[in-house]
Amino acid sequence: MKTIKLFFLISFIYTSANAQITEGNWLVGGSGNYSSQTFKFDNGEKEKRDVITIKPNIGYFIKDKFAIGASLRYEKINRFDIYGGGLFSKYYFLEVDKTFNLFAQIHYDYVNTVSPLERGDTSISSSYYGVRVGQVIFFNSVVGLEFAIEYERGNLGSGNVDNIKAVLGFQIHLEK
């Protein structure tokens, strides 16, 4: 009985999914991830930190399968808070009517890091840029769930950080 229910569920998802990745449509959603990073500082020191990142976004399809947009960024790294925003472009590789699709995304984020110290808060501005590749599963004509791998490099005031992350995203595709 469970096999029959699973078959009908998969059939329903497959037949009802019609991705809205066509020119003139909007993309609203976000992504999040958890990572454990090793920071390498200019003075040779290394430090391991746990990082939680949340990135809401909004985009617009300027052509079929190609969107550009903006995102906000919040990260919590041990005792540091990072706030920022950035730009992205995303391209879907398969046809627009596929239930599953592959995508690639590049982004640039400008961020401000706030750190509590004994003599008050300090603030450092920096930037991140990265590449994300993954797969999206469209549950219907509007909702997509993304699974991706991302490489990101950050230029910090006291050094650089390189990250490889597994990212989970949720997107809503709004029609014209």
UniProtKB/TrEMBL annotation:
Lineage: Bacteria, Pseudomonadati, Bacteroidota, Flavobacteriia, Flavobacteriales
Protein name: Outer membrane protein with beta-barrel domain
Keyword Signal among UniProt keywords: yes
Tree of life domain: Bacteria
Alphabetized UniProt keyword annotations: Signal
Endpoints of the signal sequence: 1-19
Entries under InterPro entries matching the protein: OMP/PagP_B-barrel
